């Protein structure tokens, strides 16, 4: 395989070697089923509960509030299904820039369960308009309609951050259920989930150097979630099926490491983000950006100059060994482009590319990407 310059960490991250080391015993000698009553079953059950306790402590909540899942999609589905089928929510308020794990789930329940939904208005960079959110909540409350508000903590494409505290206060005031997809922030910021009047929050381990197929659903104390998967009594009867023991151990270790090194990782990654932003502007003032500088520090969404086709650009970068994610409001054939870029009104004719960074990204990676983009512009962009 050619040398890879990996700049797509919002898609997934490399598993930290220390996480692998923590998982290996549960892939080898400690293989017991956690539901078994004999010694090696009790050992793996203890590992799960220890991981739960550690995760809860890092997120500022009780261990009984943490449920292990396969990732953000399952967690989002469980939270939304619970709100609609068990908590009496008849209207869902979300935004047009949510992940499809929320948007498609909301659409499903509108079709299947006769509930309604609406989008909150967005401002610059896709920031939630809190006045519009309050208007909608107030209107529904006056009609006696209970709402679910499902808004992501940070957008996965453009890095826009949600004011969790303000949204939580509004939900509390108007009796709404509050769910937030925290897939891009849990593991990247210290978060005390109990501070925000959240009923549900979702996270995925592979976004912060943990294993794929692992996640959590936070369920606030006093909130009773309903199963999405039926069968046995695992996860206190919320999620049936034999637990992914090594994955759960890996999730907890990855979160522990992320919080241990946050104070040094965050400014370092932020510096890489700024280095790329500044370098692109040196190439051409025609570059623009879809995220504010005070947004999610791991993500930079870039609009390339007009006339650069996204597929051609991404292919060029891929051939150079640079891994990035594409997204634009342009449509060609069945490719409708990024729903996020469309929703925030960025309809230029150039390519939009998401670069995203981690603690493993180096300045050399950034400089190589800038050099490669410079060569591309010299060869293919006519100013």
UniProtKB/TrEMBL annotation:
Residues 5-367 form the Aminotransferase class V domain. PANTHER family: CYSTEINE DESULFURASE (PTHR11601:SF34), CYSTEINE DESULFURYLASE FAMILY MEMBER (PTHR11601). It holds the Pfam family Aminotran_5. Belongs to the class-V pyridoxal-phosphate-dependent aminotransferase family. NifS/IscS subfamily. Its cofactor is pyridoxal 5'-phosphate. It comes from the Bacteria. InterPro entries: Aminotrans_V_dom, Aminotrans_V_PyrdxlP_BS, Cysteine_dSase, PyrdxlP-dep_Trfase, PyrdxlP-dep_Trfase_major, PyrdxlP-dep_Trfase_small. It catalyses: (sulfur carrier)-H + L-cysteine = (sulfur carrier)-SH + L-alanine. One of its GO terms (molecular function) is iron-sulfur cluster binding. This is cysteine desulfurase. It comes from Pedobacter petrophilus. Keywords: Aminotransferase, Iron, Iron-sulfur, Metal-binding, Pyridoxal phosphate, Transferase. Its EC number is 2.8.1.7.
């Amino acid at each position: 395989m050619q040398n890879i310059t990996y700049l797509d960490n919002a898609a997934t991250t490399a598993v930290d070697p220390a996480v692998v080391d923590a998982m290996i015993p549960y892939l080898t000698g400690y293989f017991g089923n956690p539901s078994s009553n004999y010694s090696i079953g009790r050992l793996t059950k203890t590992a799960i509960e220890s991981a739960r306790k550690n995760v809860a402590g890092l997120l500022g909540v009780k261990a009984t509030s943490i449920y292990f899942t396969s990732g953000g999609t399952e967690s989002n589905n469980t939270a939304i299904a619970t709100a609609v089928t068990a908590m009496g929510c008849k209207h869902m308020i979300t935004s047009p820039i949510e992940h499809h794990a929320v948007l498609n789930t909301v659409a499903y329940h509108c079709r299947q369960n006769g509930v309604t939904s609406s989008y909150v208005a967005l401002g610059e960079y896709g920031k939630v308009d809190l006045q519009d959110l309050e208007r909608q909540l107030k209107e529904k409350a006056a009609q006696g309609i209970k709402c679910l508000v499902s808004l992501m903590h940070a957008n996965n494409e453009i890095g826009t951050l949600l004011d969790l505290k303000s949204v939580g206060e509004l939900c509390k005031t108007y009796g709404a259920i509050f769910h937030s997809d925290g897939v891009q922030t849990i593991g990247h910021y210290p978060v005390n989930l109990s501070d925000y009047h959240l009923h549900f929050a979702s996270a995925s381990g592979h976004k912060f150097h943990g294993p794929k197929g692992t996640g959590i659903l936070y369920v606030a104390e006093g909130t009773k979630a309903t199963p999405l998967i039926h069968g046995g009594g695992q996860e206190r009867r919320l999620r049936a099926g034999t637990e992914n023991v090594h994955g759960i151990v890996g999730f907890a270790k990855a979160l522990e490491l992320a919080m241990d090194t946050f104070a040094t990782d965050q400014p370092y990654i932020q510096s890489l983000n700024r280095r790329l932003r500044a370098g692109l502007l040196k190439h051409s003032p025609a570059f623009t950006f879809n995220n504010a500088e005070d947004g999610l520090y791991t993500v930079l969404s870039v609009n390339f100059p007009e006339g650069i086709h996204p597929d051609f650009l991404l292919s060029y970068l891929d051939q150079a060994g640079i891994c990035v994610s594409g997204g634009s409001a342009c449509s060609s054939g069945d490719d409708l482009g990024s729903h996020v870029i469309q929703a925030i009104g960025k309809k230029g004719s150039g390519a939009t590319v998401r670069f995203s960074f981690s603690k493993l990204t180096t300045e050399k990676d950034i400089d190589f990407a800038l050099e490669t983009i410079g060569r591309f512009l010299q060869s293919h962009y006519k100013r």
